[in-house]
Amino acid sequence: MAGATGAVIVFDDGKSLKWRDKCEACGNVNSTVHVSSSPSPGSQVHHGMYRCERCGHSSQITIYG
Questions:
Q1: Of the candidates 30, 42, 56, 28, which has an alpha carbon nearest to the alpha carbon of residue 19?
Q2: Among 2, 3, 5, 32, which residue carries the largest CB count within 10 Å?
Q3: Ramachandran area for residue 14 (φ above 0: left; ψ -120 to 50: alpha; else beta)
Q4: What distance in Å separates the CA atoms of residue 23 and residue 42, rounded to the nearest whole number?
Q5: In this predicted structure, what is the pLDDT of residue 1?
Q6: How far apart are CA 21 and CA 2, in angstroms?
Q7: Is it the case that residue 3 has pLDDT exceeding 80?
Q8: Cα-flanking dihedrals φ and ψ of residue 25, to 5°?
Q9: pLDDT tens digits, residue range 11-58?
C-alpha cells in the first residue's frame, strides 16, 4: 500500500495507483484523479507541485511505497 504527502490515495492495487492532490495548508482536495503505476516498496516518487485553488499555497506531491 502506497502513502503520500500532498495527495490523497483513492485506489492502490499494487500495480496502479490513483490519487487526488491535497493542499497541506488548508486540507482542500482537488477533484481531479491522477493515475500512475504503484511505487515499489521503500521507494519515493516525486510527482510535482500542487497550487491550491482555495488558499494559493503550493504543496509538493510525493508518493512512496
A1: 30
A2: 2
A3: left
A4: 24
A5: 64
A6: 15
A7: yes
A8: -85, -50
A9: 999 899 999 999 999 999 999 999 998 888 888 787 789 999 999 999
Look up residue 43 and give its amino acid. S
Whole-number Å distance between alpha carbons of 16 and 32:
16
Q: Per-domain residue ranges for the chain?
A: 3-64
What is the DSSP secondary structure assignment for residue 26, as one 8-state letter? T
Question: What's the pLDDT score for residue 30?
Answer: 96
| Other beta carbons less than 10 A from residue 65's beta carbon | 16
Phi, psi of 50, deg, nearest 5:
-125, 125
Strand ranges for 15-57 from DSSP E: 16-22, 29-37, 44-51
Assigned C-alpha cell, 34: 491522477
